[in-house]
Design goal:
Largest sheet: 3 strands, antiparallel
Strand content: 15-25%
Number of helices: 4
Distance between the termini: 101 Å
Number of domains: 2
Radius of gyration: 40 Å
Order of helices and strands: EEEEEHEEHEEEEHHEE
Strand order of the largest sheet: 1-3-4
């Protein structure tokens, strides 16, 4: 039966009130939780007042249980560290039957890869190849990924060949001292032809416009 020979992806979530299991995909780890199955024996014992900290007989002794069960790698039964040791024999009988029911519910959500023997969800199953995507990646998915990576590589190569703005705005911000408009990067204003040379103050070395009569920094006559 599907999943019974591969218990590592099965998580027993059963409790006093009923039974439930979680099954995980061996590739991506996404899980599926089965429907909750109420325990008839636990509900009956609760009504009769026998259940509390473990089912008890009329004489006060524990009703013998076999311990929680999971399937080992060989398909046999193995103890789950006595997690359900206080549950009644009827509860354990229900637990075994509920597990088979849970497996039948879960197996429709998983596929067993014939190559690696892993159980995978629908997203990690390549139906065309009949293998999990770890062993047989989807050609459509890989093609789209390759195209996207090629576009990124082409974009990067294109950017390398371009002369990009480096953030230097000094030329754009130079104003002509004569007309007050952006003067450009030459020696003369591109708007009025005025000289863009500077007068150096003999006192503070500040660069002043050629038309300045006094230093804008210290007021010395130029």
């Amino acid at each position: 039966m599907a999943l019974l020979d591969h218990p590592k992806n099965v998580h027993d979530k059963s409790g006093e009130k009923g039974f439930q299991w979680g099954f995980d995909c061996d590739v991506c780890g996404s899980g599926f939780t089965t429907s909750f199955i109420p325990s008839k024996s636990a509900n009956k014992a609760r009504v009769l007042g026998f259940l509390g900290g473990g089912a008890r007989t009329l004489g006060g002794g524990l009703i013998g249980g076999t311990g929680g069960r999971v399937l080992d790698g060989a398909g046999g039964m193995a103890s789950e560290a006595g997690r359900f040791q206080n549950m009644s024999a009827d509860w354990h009988k229900e637990h075994d039957g509920a597990f088979l029911q849970a497996v039948n519910e879960a197996k429709t959500h998983f596929q067993k890869c014939p190559k690696c023997k892993r159980y995978v969800c629908a997203e990690d199953w390549n139906s065309e190849a009949g293998l999990c995507t770890a062993d047989a990646p989807s050609l459509t998915t890989e093609l789209q990924a390759a195209k996207a990576q090629t576009r990124v590589d082409q974009m990067r190569e294109h950017v390398k060949t371009q002369t990009l703005y480096d953030g230097d705005t000094s030329d754009r911000m130079t104003l002509c001292p004569t007309c007050g408009k952006p003067a450009g990067a030459g020696k003369f204003c591109q708007n009025c032809g005025g000289s863009l040379s500077f007068k150096t103050c003999t006192k503070c070395n500040h660069q002043n416009a050629m038309t300045a009569g006094f230093c804008a920094e210290c007021g010395t006559k130029l």
